[in-house]
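hiii so um. not sure if this is the right channel but i have a protein structure encoded as tokens and i wanna go backwards to a sequence. like what aa goes where. can anyone help
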């Protein structure tokens, strides 16, 4: 939404399922008019064209501020620009050659890790990562404009790019020939404090992530935990961490 100066009102762009065209008068009594009458045929524009148009409005009109509401109801101020912004995720994306370009608000346009599921190739700006404290985001945030990615959260993107595995300490050097008694970290307790099983939907809640995107699908959870083995002293062997957590939660 673009909020204009003085009493000029707002310019609002509604998402899928919220928009329609009607030949009626607006509640403000100002008549809605179309140049050259109504179009005779339905026309289509690309996501890039829509983004360019929306950005052009902010330049051509007397816009005071711009904001955006996510499907979860989170509102951010798009007018907050932090050029050359970075964080650990942005640095990871850069080191792996996934950043294609940078936007005016500090966002990094990236190669979507799920692009194989996209129905069309809509260009460089269709998928972006906003580093924390940029464009109104307190934490890092992924955004993909493709419908096939609408249900994905930040955890899904982090896992897909291979970043999530770095959230944990590497315990490989702590192993001993006699067993696991010398390991100086209780991994079971660590994971049990971090994850909560959600009965409805058979999902997991990751308490280390922001509340609005902390719930992950069971398949994603098991893939995330696959590299980690929890030591079992009684059985003299390691067990799959996801199985151990689920058993303890039940």
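sure thing!! here u go:
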């Amino acid at each position: 939404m673009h909020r204009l100066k003085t009493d000029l009102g707002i310019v609002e762009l509604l998402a899928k399922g919220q928009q329609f065209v009607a030949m009626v008068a607006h509640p403000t009594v100002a008549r809605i008019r179309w140049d050259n009458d109504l179009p005779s045929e339905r026309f289509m524009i690309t996501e890039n064209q829509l983004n360019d148009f929306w950005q052009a409005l902010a330049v051509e009109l007397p816009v005071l501020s711009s904001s955006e509401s996510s499907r979860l109801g989170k509102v951010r101020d798009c007018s907050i620009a932090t050029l050359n912004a970075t964080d650990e995720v942005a640095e990871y994306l850069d080191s792996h050659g996934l950043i294609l370009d940078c936007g005016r608000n500090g966002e990094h346009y990236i190669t979507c890790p799920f692009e194989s599921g996209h129905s069309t190739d809509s260009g460089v700006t269709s998928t972006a990562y906003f580093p924390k404290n940029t464009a109104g985001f307190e934490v890092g945030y992924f955004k993909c404009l493709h419908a096939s990615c609408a249900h994905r959260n930040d955890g899904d993107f982090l896992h897909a790019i291979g970043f999530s595995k770095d959230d944990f300490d590497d315990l490989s050097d702590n192993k001993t020939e006699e067993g696991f008694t010398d390991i100086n970290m209780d991994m079971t307790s660590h994971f049990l404090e971090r994850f909560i099983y959600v009965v409805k939907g058979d999902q997991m809640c990751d308490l280390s992530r922001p509340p609005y995107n902390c719930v992950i699908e069971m398949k994603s959870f098991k893939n995330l935990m696959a590299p980690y083995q929890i030591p079992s002293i009684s059985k003299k062997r390691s067990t799959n961490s996801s199985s151990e957590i689920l058993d303890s939660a039940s």
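oh and Residues 174-185 have pLDDT under 50 and may be disordered.
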